[in-house]
Amino acid sequence: RRRPEAAERWARRPEVVPGRGEQASGDPALAQGLLEGAGRPPAARATRTEGQDVASLSRSPLAREGAGGGEQLVDQLIRDLNEMNDVPFFDIQLPYELAINIFQYLDRKELGRCAQVSKTWKVIAEDEVLWYRLCQQEGHLPDSSISDYSCWKLIFQECRAKEHMLRTNWKNRKGAVSELEHIPDAVLCDVHSHDGVVIAGYTSGDVRVWDTRTWDYVAPFLESEDEEDEPGMQPNVSFVRINSSLAVAAYEDGFLNIWDLRTGKYPVHRFEHDARIQALALSQDDATVATASAFDVVMLSPSEEGYWQIAAEFEVPKLVQYLEIVPETGRYPVAVAAAGDLMYLLKAEDSARTLLYAHGPPVTCLDVSANQVAFGVQGLGWVYEGSKILVYSLEAGRRLLKLGNVLRDFTCVNLSDSPPNLMVSGNMDGRVRIHDLRSGNIALSLSAHQLGVSAVQMDDWKIVSGGEEGLVSVWDYRTNQKLWEVYSGHPVQHISFSSHSLITANVPYQTVMRNVDLDSFTTHRRHRGLIRAYEFAVDQLAFQSPLPVCRSSCDAMATHYYDLALAFPYNHV
């Protein structure tokens, strides 16, 4: 950093008058101090012996001048060299492990700058431990170990390039879209998905599963235990849920089927309620199912031997409309149930029922995370009080925040999938709001839909929302810009996306169709509902074809690779 300054001073050195050089060099103490490296750090002077100084001086042409200001030139040169070497940390010998512990606090840009300092720093800055830790911090290859790859810096660069490509495809609507196959003469009742696997229930009583991660996958039917039932004679499916190992379906007659996706298409357990099941919940990280029927809430889980049993049973004074299982609770499951103007925390460990919220406006939506629960409550009008979202601590059992205060009711809230300290919600007024959980304020409000918002999800840069009018909108909330939108004729009931895929489901409100309507294929197609799967991590060469290219058979699901902007142009409302 100081090398140009030293060179400039060396170029502007004054001319030496004969005779003045001898006078300046007449001080033996000054000459001896120069030879010993005066001005250098003590550690550097200690490493030089007197014999080395004399030898180096004897080899210097400036020192051999003996006259004409040679000692002044040597003095200036030594000072300039000392200034160039006076950089902290270069003359300190640290153990390699200690240097790694210091460098672990640097991000990728700072490590890149440190690698340009010296060869020693380059070796430290490119250590595999540092780049493996960066990959884990940014969510790349979370299930891998450090021994899986030989160059984690290269893996990190490839993951960053793939992430950039996915973000570009999201913004430009480039990818593959699939319409999952419908069941003839049946209407879609409920849809759920987990990690790219989709489950759907129909009015015919059929339950079907697709794995959208493998495009040539043929969706299987999950069979009921009653083999004597004729096709189409089973009761309607009320709710479906799925996680990494289980699939669950609740029927209108109060029956519940649980399938193990690893063992086969027949249910491993069948449970019966006396009345219709009003709410269904499935844990996303373990095998726990919760159902609400009439005034009873039942938790089901397998024993150590693998036999399903009732883990806990609770009785509530009102009908339950919303039911969720708290994630990451360990051995004993915990659920949250909303029944009218009551909110309960249900613990299976001691069958304890804790009242979180009572005697207020009715609950309109619900979502839970590992340590918090957020739910919307109806407003009392502008004269009294508007609709709000209340955030409670599950551990302390007390209210943390009161968010909102708008005229219309909140219809959906997503706390579990939102970034830290943020939460997204949808309202009957058609607006999508981002809430800052640190300040309790609304960070952003988007006018997204003409009717109410029925589903919403966000990540670190985008929002995907669905409306009751059937519109799916994608927003870049950092720039407050709508990227694209897709329209279908039914309300959007389910939205789930990852970094590379998006699954949407349009479920009709009216699930009963007249027989005359079933005879018309066009009418049935209009009323049956729709499930779409979008994949943005496909080869860019697939976008060059202006026409759809089918990759699978007609009885599986029609997959097309093309520019989504050409297939679904903007539909402004």
Automatic annotation (TrEMBL):
| Compartmental location | Cytoplasm, Perinuclear region; Golgi apparatus
* Cited Gene3D superfamilies: 1.20.1280.50, YVTN repeat-like/Quinoprotein amine dehydrogenase
Alphabetic keyword roster: Acetylation, Cytoplasm, Golgi apparatus, Phosphoprotein, Repeat, WD repeat
Spans of the WD repeats? 446-485
- The residues covered by the F-box domain are 88-134
The record's annotation in PROSITE patterns points to:
FBOX, WD_REPEATS_2
Compositional bias segments (type: Basic and acidic residues):
1-15
Q: Please give the InterPro entries that the UniProt record associates with this protein.
A: F-box-like_dom_sf, F-box_dom, Quinoprotein_ADH-like_sf, WD40/YVTN_repeat-like_dom_sf, WD40_rpt, WDR55/POC1
What's one Pfam family the UniProt record gives for this protein?
F-box-like
Q: Where is the composition biased (Low complexity)?
A: 37-46
Chain positions covered by the region annotation Disordered: 1-68
**What pathway does the annotation place this protein in?**
Protein modification; protein ubiquitination
According to its record, what are the GO cellular component terms? Golgi apparatus; perinuclear region of cytoplasm
UniProt-listed PANTHER family? F-BOX_WD REPEAT-CONTAINING PROTEIN 8, WD REPEAT-CONTAINING PROTEIN 55
The name this protein goes by in its record:
F-box/WD repeat-containing protein 8
- UniProt organism field: Macaca mulatta (Rhesus macaque)
